[in-house]
Structure formats: structure tokens, C-alpha cells
Request: fold
Amino acid sequence: MNPAAQRRPFRRLVAGGVVLVATMAVAACGADPVAPLPVQPPVESRPSPTPAAIPAPTASPSRPPPTSRRPIAAPPAQTSARGTPHRPAPTSTGPTTSCQGAVRYDLPLAETELELLRSLCFATGAVLRIQGIGPGLVTVDRPELVSQHYEAGVVDIRFVRPGTVDVRIPKEAREHTVTVVVR
Reply:
């Protein structure tokens, strides 16, 4: 047998093995092509552009310029004589407000000193929940601005319109007035 005839079966065997390996790879991964790994740029068959055709990089306003990769430590916080961190007083550029949103504000009468509570501020829709009081004892001066409900020792006052409402709460033979501003 001549040497060329002896190589033909080997070539068929190698070609068959390549087809078999390729078929198994497609069957194992599905028919969809596999995307390159994120660290590998996709291979393109286009010719590379000339240096004059490459645009110069521009600075991005959202990203700082590249620096060394070492982290920079923050300066140590100033401490007081006791060793506690010193925090500078907050600076405010606009008006400050202590007005809360449309929240439920719980007021447990057994745990609250009403002498210290003079006024509150809420958004429309907020509820003042007064706990531990009898029916009909809590009154308001502007009933058209609120929706009031009593059940099981709890008075819920929902502020339905903006305005100022004086809520009168009797406690220990005295009537306490809490002024509520509703925005």
C-alpha cells in the first residue's frame, strides 16, 4: 500500500472526531452562541483604524480622572478632651421645619407629660392617636378640618384639610391644648 493511501483513514478519523467534538459542544451548551467573558473583548474582523482616525478621549463629568489604585485614608476625626469624636455644627442653607408628613402620631397619655407638648405640625392625612382616654373627652376647635373617631380608650383625629386646629385634652382636672398646624 502506498503511503498516501495509509494516511486517508487517519484523516477521516481525525475529521470525524472534530465533527463529533463540535456536535457535543453545541448539544451541551445549546444552539445559542456563547458570549465572550466580560474580561475578554469581542473579536472583530474589521481592520484596525489608523491613529489619525481614533478620537481623543474626553473627560466624563460623572467620573473623576484616573488616579493611582491605592485608597486614600480619610483624615482622623477631631476628638474632644473626653476622647469622643467632635462633630461640627450642621450648617443649614434653607429654612428648617419640624413638620412631619402624613404619619400616625401616637400620644399615650399615661406616658406623656402634656405640659411639654404645646404644638405639632403634620401634613394633610396625618392621624393624632390619643391613647388612654374616655369617650367624648377630647375636643377640637375646628371640626371641619378633622375626622374624629373613638374606640376602646383611643381617639383617632385625622387631619383632612390644611389649617390650624387646637386639640383640647383633659388630664388630671386640667385641660391641655395642643395646637396642630396642618399643611
